[in-house]
Amino acid sequence: MNIKRFFGKNSKLALAQVREALGDDAVILSNRTVKGGNEIMAFSEAEMNAIATSEDTEVTLNADVVEDSRTSTLEDLFKKRMQTENASIPSQSNFNDDVVRESSNDMIEATLAQTKAQAKEVNTQIANMMTEIRNMRTIIESQLAEISWGATQQREPIKSKILGAMLTAGFSPGLSKQLVDNIPKKQSEADSKRWVQSVLLKNLATMTKEDEMLDKGGIYAIVGPTGVGKTTTTAKLAARFVMKHGTENIGLITTDSYRIGGHEQLRIYGKILGVMVHSVKDEADLKIALRELKNKHTILIDTVGVSQRDKMVSEQIAMLSNKKLNIKKLLCLNATSTGDTLIDVIKAYKGQGLTGCIMTKIDEAITLGNVLDVMIREKLKLYYVTNGQRVPEDLHLPHKQQLVHRTFSRGTAKNSPFQLPKEDQPLVVGNTVRAASKTRLLELDNA
After folding, report:
1. Taking residues 54-69, what's their average pLDDT?
2. Picking from 81-90, 298-307, 351-360, which range would have the lowest pLDDT averaged per residue?
3. Per-residue model confidence as pLDDT tens digits over 410-422
4. Arch. (CATH architecture) of 207-398
């Protein structure tokens, strides 16, 4: 008898080999699991018939397969084996529920972690792509603006000349370009300049009558960074009030206890004016001083001067912003500072709001466009201007027309290295187009 041995990684593969070699009617002698897979011993049906006709031959078959080998064909056994293996596929009932649940949770967590990592990578790629697109857009817009303004210089020389005048006067490129772009067409240079100045005047808020502050009264804190003239300005305001209303109705307070002798300057002015000066260190002292002065018509508070980036500024503003105290804050703006510095100062001292501002040191400033630009941009009302150290002579009500006229008439110093040549205007406009002013101008709104 020719018995053949078949080996496969599993029973399915081994049975497939038997079928291919011996046909569907092959007889299985044994089917067992061995190292590396399954082993099947089988022979063909022809061999089986030969054994059946021989009375001397007796084959002892494996007890596990004897019945199947005598009564079943290979096809039947194959089907039965398939059913057995399908039945042996792991199901929830074959395992402990906790093990299955734990395994499922691990798979879910692993999948989520992988998904998050992939999403993060995709988001990073998108962010990098958007950054590149924005950079490209900036470059393209700048180049287009440069080309456009270069053409404008040739086509509309009046606009080019007025833009140069505004930049020279200290106005920001953004505000300057916004105004110049909206100059009415077919106007002479003089009319165009008057139009620009009229827009600036309409958007510049000022106190027109001194009675608005001195007669109305209230509590005013003079704030600002070091060296802007807060103490001298406080003394000028106090002297102006005393000249009009006498010494009985005004109170003076100083919070400058950090600087050595910081409060002495105001005390000297107070002694000259015949007004007592109260020195306070914190909010508790301030409340006590205000209670003592509650019957005064006007109270002026001279505050400590520190850099606008000092953390002490926020503490000071918090103290002065107590709504129950009803303190109005007037910010001193140094006319000699750059526009960026002035904006930084305003942001530091703004807190819950500024009542207005006082422009100091205009006698030291070459140009005023920087401070006018910032006041228009931040919607700050101008209460006073100061132009010297004399008390109280060098304190004045602001005259808008004079300020704007001076801004355009003086310009920068002769042969100044900071003056922009006409041929470089397209470059400046191109580089600042993205920073174009978003200030809403009254004249433009009404147009």
Report:
1. 44
2. 81-90
3. 655 556 666 666 5
4. 3-Layer(aba) Sandwich (3.40)
The residues near 332 (Cβ < 8 Å, ≥ 6 apart) are: 222, 223, 224, 228, 229, 230, 233, 357, 358, 360
Looking at the DSSP bridge assignments, the partners of residue 42 are 4, 28
Look at residue 186 and tell me whether its pLDDT is greater than 50. Answer: yes
Where in the chain do CATH 3.40.50.300 domains reside?
207-398
Does residue 345 or residue 74 have the better pLDDT?
A: 345
